[in-house]
Amino acid sequence: MTSNRQRMPDPRSLDNDPVVARLRTANPSPASVPVSASGPLTAVARASQLGAAVGPLPESLKAALADAPAIPVDPKDIGPSKWANRHELSLQVSDPEFATLVRSFRTNGQDIPCVARPAPAGAAFRYEIAVGHRRHAACLLLNAELESGFPCYVKVVPLADREMAKLMNRENSDRKALSPYEQGRYFTRLLEDQVFVDREDLAKEMDLEAPTVFKYLQVAKLPGAILAAFGDPRCISLRWVEEINRALRKNEAAVLAAAERLSVTPDVKEPQRTLRALVAASGIVVAKSSTREERIKVSGRLGAKVKKESRGISVAWGDTLDAATVKTLNEELFEWCDQRLKKVLGVQ
Question: If exposure means fewest CB atoms within 10 Å of the residue's CB, which of 52, 72, 76, 318 is most exposed?
Fold first, then answer.
């Protein structure tokens, strides 16, 4: 049986290709995109989509993303970023959304390319992925499953560390958002590796408020026993961090003991119950109201009031927003709900 590597285009054969050579320069020029692929793969025709979706990035980087061709690469030649921000559970078929992505790739192929940069010297792979860890994981799985192989389409762009960090963060916010735990772990790694000087520097570059960055970091710093109690740390809400830390300050030993007991059979489907049990263990009286109201502020101004109940939410936009903005937000929120539900329910 012919190996997957032999069945698909060998990326090493592209070393002398002038298009690929251009990608290794700091000022790439426009290039074409492959328009077809054999086997179960579809064409990668949306060459400029990533350039349009990444938000306020430097114009030179957006141009490079738009111009770079999507080339087929053996997924085994692509390695994860050292700042990979998806939790391992997000890349397993037990995750419903990842399973849906794999089924879509198997049927329709990969229609949006990943983004990678050349791997550093001495790495075990040729490219370091910046955008599309879930897409790459799906390609890896299908490449191992299908006899014909399944290449991963990638745009290779030279990226400095800060550019890569911003691109990874912007891409996730535009597609499947990271959970607070994933976001906090990601920010922690960037600060540990001194990609950003401090929290304020990171917040500025990520277009976030510094207190918000602090909350994300606090989620990632929760004790391991607390994370294990929830079973899946991705379900921990950002607003719960203050409650959990307050409980820990009041009676850390009791809360951690409760966390150990809960971790034996974590209630992944009802994480609120875990939160209530942890807080109650500290001796803090837990409110039983089924409705919560939160305020979203932007630059100190009220943007919205959000009421959350067990089966839904309601949003009231702040008085500072004009009628046109409110109308646009309503339409975008409805569209998001429509598309999100179709994706979750597997409806095309």
Answer: 52
Radius of gyration, CA atoms only, the chain? 22
> Does the reported pTM lie above 0.70?
no
Handedness of CA 317, 322, 327, 331 (dihedral sign): negative
Contacts of 84 (CB under 8 A, 6+ apart): 129, 133
Q: CB–CB of 108/102 below 8 Å?
A: no
Supply the pLDDT for residue 169: 82
77 near 125, Cβ under 8 Å?
yes
C-alpha 102/C-alpha 85 separation (Å) is: 19
Phi-psi region of 109 (alpha: psi -120 to 50; beta: other; left: phi over 0): left
Summarised one tens digit per residue, pLDDT across range 301-336 is 778 888 877 678 888 888 878 887 888 888 888 888
d(CA 177, CA 168): 11
Q: Is 105 exposed, middle or buried (0-12, 13-18, 19+ CB in 10 A)?
A: buried
Contact 41, 151 (CB under 8 A): yes
Amino acid at the residue 212: T
Q: For the chain, which ranges sit under pLDDT 70?
A: 1-57, 172-176, 286-293, 297-300, 310, 347-348
Give 37-106 as a DSSP string: -STT------TTHHHHHS-S--HHHHHHHHHS-EEEE-GGGEE--TT--S-GGGGSTTSHHHHHHHHHHH
Residue 191: closest CA among 220, 224, 232, 171: 220
**Residue 342 — φ and ψ, nearest 5°?**
-65, -40
3-state secondary structure of 283: coil
Q: What are phi and psi of 165, to 5 degrees?
A: -60, -45
CB 66 within 8 A of CB 48: yes
